[in-house]
Specification:
Layout lengths: L2 H23 L4 H23 L9 H19 L3 H23 L5 H19 L10 E2 L12 H25 L1 H18 L4 H20 L2 H5 L1 E2 L1 H4 L3 H13 L5 H20 L5 H15 L3 H16 L2
Antiparallel strand pairs: 1-2
Helix pairs in contact: 1-6, 2-6, 2-8, 2-11, 2-12, 3-4, 3-5, 3-8, 4-8, 6-7, 6-8, 7-8, 11-12, 11-13, 12-13
Length: about 325
């Protein structure tokens, strides 16, 4: 393991320790309700970037994977009374299988045609759930939280810590993909897929692996949401805002590096939660759109690009 790898895992351990400490010390539960959403967005943005950023395939199917993750957890709870960790694990497996299946159907498409196909997947998935009465159908389903697991004194605090662990897993996977042969192949696909194929890069296989990893993380992020709200319905679970937010957060943070989606999710997620408390939740979409337009026009490489540009200027200005 390199020096950077050691520091990454030290930082990850400190991050989880901080999440646990907050859950044990802080009494204001709104901190954890807001923190849960921000952490969830970090996972979704990181997952989106594995296919959308590294490979350049703009995916609007985040909502489909997220919603399937929600309803996988609901099905497991109603049918088998499965605990939360089992729900998340099975949702990840379902998401990976779904990613492979959808990838085989859509990854031969390129550009706008691929993006339109992923929107269609969301509509199909939502329609199937609407007609599945066992999980509540169109009217939704009310969920009862199980007893709190010590040492936590509320279920939402436990969910917050679980999401913090999921963030570490998602970011670690994204970091590994970026630095691996898989990541180099995906970047070759993004730069020029035809040239990559002519050089012997197995482009379809690489895209399928990326789609499976991305789908697994998105479904895993959706699984705890049913217990977070204690209610789920198809309209909210498959809301296209998840797709737009994951894309926007990755672009605002920067798609060229694994830290980009994390920064974008923290910035946008925190801003949205602050606006929800101070003004109105309805203004979130407006702020999201304005920030996305601002960064696309003024800083197309996102926060990462801005930092790199400033670093070059500082370097040139030094004696």
């Amino acid at each position: 393991m390199t020096g950077r790898g050691v520091w990454f895992w030290i930082g990850a351990a400190l991050f989880i320790a901080l999440a646990v400490a907050l859950a044990l010390v802080v009494r204001n539960e709104y901190v954890f309700f807001a923190g849960f959403v921000i952490l969830q967005f970090i996972v979704l943005a990181t997952a989106w970037n594995i296919l959308g950023g590294y490979a350049g395939y703009v995916n609007f199917g985040t909502s489909a994977f997220f919603g399937i993750g929600v309803y996988t957890a609901i099905f497991l709870l109603k049918a088998f009374s499965a605990p939360l960790l089992v729900q998340i694990g099975v949702a990840a497996v379902v998401g990976a299988a779904m990613g492979l299946g959808i990838g085989l159907l859509t990854l031969r498409l390129r550009g706008i045609f691929f993006s339109i196909a992923t929107v269609a997947i969301t509509i199909i998935a939502e329609t199937l759930i609407i007609n599945w009465k066992f999980v509540g159908g169109a009217t939704g389903v009310q969920m009862l939280r199980p007893p709190v697991t010590p040492p936590f004194d509320s279920y939402i605090k436990m969910l917050f810590v679980v999401l913090a662990i999921l963030v570490v897993i998602a970011v670690a996977l994204a970091r590994y993909v970026q630095d691996s042969k898989l990541g180099r192949g995906l970047r070759a696909v993004r730069d020029d897929e035809v040239a990559a194929e002519s050089c012997g890069v197995p482009t379809l296989n690489l895209k399928l692996v990326a789609c499976a990893i991305s789908g697994a993380l998105m479904c895993a992020a959706g699984a705890p949401s049913a217990m977070y709200l204690q209610f789920a319905d198809p309209v909210s679970a498959f809301n296209l805002n998840y797709s737009v937010s994951a894309l926007a957060m990755s672009l605002i943070g920067g798609t060229s590096h694994w830290i980009g989606p994390v920064l974008g999710a923290i910035l946008l997620g925190s801003t949205q939660q602050l606006l929800t408390v101070t003004i109105s939740s309805e203004i979130n979409v407006l702020v999201l759109g304005l920030m996305l337009v601002l960064f696309v026009v003024a800083a197309p490489e996102g926060i990462i690009g801005l930092v790199r540009r400033l670093w070059r200027r500082v370097g040139k200005g030094s004696p």
